[in-house]
Amino acid sequence: MNQNILTAEDDLQIQSFIDYALKHEGYSCITASNGEEAIRKAREENTAIMILDLGLPDMDGKEVIRTVRLESQMPIIVVSARDRESEKIAALDAGADDYLTKPFSATELMARIRVAERHLKNQIRQEDSGGSEVRELRIDLNKRLVYLAEKELHVTPMEYQLLEYFFQNIGKVLTTKSIIEVLWGKGYGSDTQALRSLMAGLRRKIEKNPAKPEYIITEIGVGYRLLDQ
């Protein structure tokens, strides 16, 4: 799948490494060395995915994410040396889709790009059909029904809302904060007990072994992700 990928990175060695990995897989590369250039090229160039370093010389990468998100829903993969969970959560809450901590391998980067591509395809599929599926799990967005191996599941309205949010963001890491805001509103606070209980109930219905989930996995200290494979 030949796509234009925008890389915003001020470290020339890392930029060269990423460009080589992308071109080796047949992608076209667009580069930016600072935040303003990244925002301009995201707006002007035909880019499908952005790879973004948080530590740019002119502005924090999270500000780039927030600005790009005003105009585009392209997948944004953050690559950063900042490995604290608080940094990951802040970037994801700002609108990033995924987060890679430096150093990372070309194999890991390409895997994340493939996830982003499948996310793009799934968005188009949802718009065309009003539904989406991940392996044996399927959701009908028009009828608000959920199926597992073609058998209808009886889910509560809150479980459906939670699952719908995951299907709208297949492969994307969703922070606990963002899920709580979608389900209960921004004024709910930071208590995660209700979400954990809701997640446990949903997993009992969709997972063969809720203790070892295959669909919705936990990103320790950050949130959850609906796996697309």
Topology:
Elements: E1 4-8, H1 12-24, E2 28-32, H2 35-44, E3 49-53, H3 61-69, E4 76-80, H4 85-94, E5 98-101, H5 106-129, E6 131-134, E7 137-140, E8 145-148, E9 151-153, H6 157-167, E10 173-175, H7 176-184, H8 193-206, E11 216-219, E12 223-226
Parallel strand pairs: 1-2, 1-3, 3-4, 4-5
Antiparallel strand pairs: 6-7, 7-8, 8-9, 10-12, 11-12
Provide an overview of this structure.
With 229 residues, the protein is of the alpha/beta class. It has eight helices and twelve strands. Strand 1 (4-8), helix 1 and strand 2 form a beta-alpha-beta unit. It is globular and about 50 Å long. It is 44% helix and 22% strand. Helix 6 (157-167) packs across helix 8. The longest helix is centred in the middle third of the chain and has 24 residues, at 106-129. The protein has a five-stranded parallel sheet, with helices on both faces. Strands 6-7-8-9 form a four-stranded antiparallel sheet. It has a three-stranded antiparallel sheet with strand order 10-12-11.
